[in-house]
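Page 42, continued from yesterday. The earlier attempt failed because a stray header line got pasted into the input along with the sequence. Redoing it now with the clean sequence only.
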Amino acid sequence: MGKGSQDFILNKIETLMTKLTLGNHEEEEWHTLLSESDLAYKDQVTLSECHIIDYIGKNRLTNAIGIATNMNITKGGVSKITARLVEKGFIEVHRLEGNRKEIFFTLTNEGKKIYELHDKLHARVCQRITDLFDSYTQSELQAIGRFFSELTDIV
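This time it went through. C-alpha cells are written below.
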C-alpha cells in the first residue's frame, strides 16, 4: 500500500474519531428522533441526560460513583445531571435500608420511555452500519474486522 493510501486511511480514522468524540452525529440523530416522537417532554432531554438515563436503565440501582467511573464523567457532572433528571421526573433516588448515606438511581416510567427511545436511536445507527456491510464481500469484511481488531489493540 502506498503512502497516499495510508495517509487517506489515517485521515479517515481521525475524522471518525473526531465525530465519535464530539458526538455531533448522535446529537443530530437524537433531535431528529425526538422531533418524530409524540413525547410531551421531547425538548427537555439533552443527549448527556439521555446517556445517563441509558446507563441507569442498563444498571439497576446504580449510584453516582458507578455512573462517573463507567461513563468517564466527573462525580460533580453526574451530580448536576442526575439532579436535573430527578427534577424533570425521569429518575428517582433511593437509599438502601441501613445505608442512608449512599443514594441509588432508578428510572421512572417517563425515564423508561426515554431509555426506549435511546435504544431506538442505537438500533437506527446499527441498521445503517449493517446496510453498509452489504456493500462488501465476505473477504473484505474479514479484512475490515481484522483491521479494527488490531487498531483497537494499539489505541
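Notes: The chain has a mean pLDDT of 84.
Reminder to self: strip header lines before submitting.
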